[in-house]
Amino acid sequence: MDRDGEKRKKILVVDDIGAVRNRYASLLRNEGYEVMAAADGKEALEMAGRHLFDMILLDLNMPGMNGLDVLHELRATYSKMREVFHVDNVPVLCVSGYISEEAVSTANLLGAVGILEKPINLDEMLATVSQVLTEGGPVPGRRKTVVVLDSNAKVRSLFRYVFEGLGWAVVEGSNPDRLLAVLTSSTPDLILVSLPPLPAEEESVLRRFAPVADRIPLIVVARSASQGNRVTQWLPEDVVVLIRPFGPETLTQAVERAQSRAKATPPPVYVRAKQT
């Protein structure tokens, strides 16, 4: 308990460098938090399975199981826990010495509340931790994330150009199974799916994405009006469909419509389970 009789917030610090790990833990304890520490990804997952933390401070650049692997496993674990205990995701604040665009996009997709770049300003770290634990949700400046599925690498790069111009982080790919595997443990702000030309493949893609259409804003890109008309056989009638060709302005308007549609159907509300 803290001085006011309230239960102290519990934080897990994950970093493979002992001096860094101990420094973070010491600073957080001095701020009144209850802190546990893990030296690698495997230990972090074991501790997260035994304790219900209020927040995790996670280094992305660790040998063996890196931080993104840990974040993916955490989200998968909490996804299963929601079904039984109705707990919400623990906020994860990532730390990295070098951050690639792909790593940022993937961390955002997997629900990181923010990423701090090393060398960390310790006052900024403490302020960010306090803000996340007090206000919840992502820290200011966290970009929205879109998942783009298209078989053509050049087309994907055009979508990336448009979305990054809008300030979004982009996770792209041509394999629907690989992207759907990520979606089982994360929730992007938008999914854009380009339909393949063959009817059999078209139906397969639509069937795969139908289960997420009610919880994640979805834009379907069709190659023709007739293909676009078939979308509603598998997806809700109000799903946003774009017919090629179209320009950046049309895409931007479609993004706004997809997000507005999603807001009309509130997501389920999860509450943190009481720790025993």
Could you characterize what this model shows?
The chain is an alpha/beta fold and 276 residues long. The chain is built from 10 helices and 10 strands. The protein has helices spanning 18-30, 41-50, 67-85, 101-109, 122-135, 153-165, 176-183, 199-209, 225-230, 248-263; strands at 10-14, 34-38, 55-59, 92-96, 114-117, 145-149, 169-173, 190-194, 218-222, 240-243. The strands form 2 sheets. The chain has a 5-stranded parallel β-sheet, with helices on both faces. Helix 2 (41-50) runs parallel beside helix 3. The two termini are 15 Å apart.
Core attributes:
276 residues; alpha/beta; five-stranded parallel β-sheet; 10 strands; 43% helix; elongated; disordered C terminus
